[in-house]
Amino acid sequence: MQTIRLMRTHNGETVIPGGYRANGWSSVLPHEMNVLFHALCYLVAKYDSKEEMIQGFREINALNGTFDTLDKAKFKSEESYENYINLLETHKEFLKRSNYEYPKTKEEAIELMIKWGLVLDQGDVWDVPVHPFPEAQDIFVLNEREKFALDHLKLESLIHPIFSKLILHLHEQEDNHFSMTKAEMKKLLDIEDALLMEVLVKLIPYLKEPIENLQDLSDTDPMEFTVEWEKVYEDFLGGTYQQNVQ
Questions:
Q1: Which residues share a beta bridge with 223?
Q2: What is the pLDDT of residues 112-158, one digit of tens each?
Q3: d(C-alpha 171, C-alpha 165), whole Å
Q4: Helices (DSSP H) in the chain: which residue ranges?
Q5: Of the candidates 4, 58, 70, 2, which has an alpha carbon nearest to the alpha carbon of residue 31?
Q6: Which sign does the torsion angle of CA 47, 48, 52, 58 carry?
Q7: 64: DSSP letter
Q8: Model's pTM, two decimal places?
Q9: What's the rounded Cα separation, in Å, for the pair 183 and 26?
Q10: Is residue 58 helix, strand or coil?
């Protein structure tokens, strides 16, 4: 098993396991538990004992007030307060459906994370797994809508870096019209047929026109397509990355 403590380099970087988002945890857990998990990842990388980590909690401003009685005065408006209360109740009901009580303290929340496998209790120190990482779907009772959402999230987490690789490769050609075969694209991305189709489906909204007869093309037939880069910049890459690919 890979863990944060085994991977840490003492260079100040905080490793957040990719499985935390890909396996559904950031979606099913409430805001304050997400903040706590990120804080634990930081503390595990920085300190060598539970005592140091517990002390480190006091230095993280984002944890101030978590798992306490909500102070209505800290919200911008009555509507913001009510929205937060409603969301919190939704998370409480979600945990209750799987026979878990919503934690009242950071300590109770950490105990739940240990039970779920998100945190490893090694006696005098905590650690966090990186790979393999627990699946939220294995822990909680989900309805069909929630299962579908988490399956989509996992697929998107898998497809996104592959799609990013394709987009950056295409942009390096300094053109917007391309002719590639399925075999060439699979070799470039190091993927098989099933993932290729998912990548092509994700690519279609950014094309001037859909690829003709996509399903019927063989591995050696050329795929002709024109990328509308403005759509990519606005919708996929966003302002943060636009300068990196120009």
A1: 180
A2: 999 999 999 999 999 999 989 999 999 999 999 999 989 888 878 87
A3: 10
A4: 4-7, 18-22, 25-28, 31-46, 50-57, 78-97, 106-116, 144-172, 182-189, 193-203, 229-231, 238-245
A5: 70
A6: positive
A7: T
A8: 0.70
A9: 36
A10: coil
